[in-house]
Amino acid sequence: MKQSFAALVAGLLFGLGLVISHMIDPAKVLGFLDIAGSWDPSLAFVMAGAIPIAAIGFGATRARAAPILATRFQGPSRTRLDRTLVIGAALFGVGWGLVGYCPGPALTSLVLGRWQSWVFVAAMLVGMAGYGFLDRASALFTRRYSTFISPR
Fold it and tell me: Rounded to an integer, what distance in angstroms lies between the CA atom of residue 21 and that of residue 46?
């Protein structure tokens, strides 16, 4: 229960930060990404302000053996660059650049009731489900037919 409450508070604080910084406004984000046109550098200041705050948080975790509400720290299970990570990052960047939303701000902007936000989130969920399906199908195919596929 404490972990769920802490997650709720952290999510609300993150959402509030997105609202205050105007990252839920696709026009603001696209203005930041338009470095060849009428560039709006204000989001760079938001990101620059977030770096020292994150650094303090990461520094504080190094002084602890475990998190306050968990038995151990959990990092990524895979730490090397692979094709899936690079393709996913590229798709994320292209999507962000085309529409001005990434998942956090898109979810936060749902409260504004804009139909564009709802369409983006629906498409994002379909994409996530599609990836999950394709990933499971690929793993099943590889297991089933690995004897027929010769290593190179």
Answer: 7
Angstrom distances, CA of residue 133 to CA of 6, 108, 124: 31, 26, 14
Is pTM, for the whole model, over 0.90?
Answer: no
Each residue's pLDDT, cut to its tens digit, for the chain (152 residues) gives 888 999 999 999 988 988 888 888 888 888 988 888 889 998 889 889 989 999 998 898 888 888 888 888 888 888 889 988 899 899 888 888 888 888 889 999 998 888 999 999 999 999 999 989 998 998 888 887 766 665 55
H-run or E-run covering 6: helix 2-20
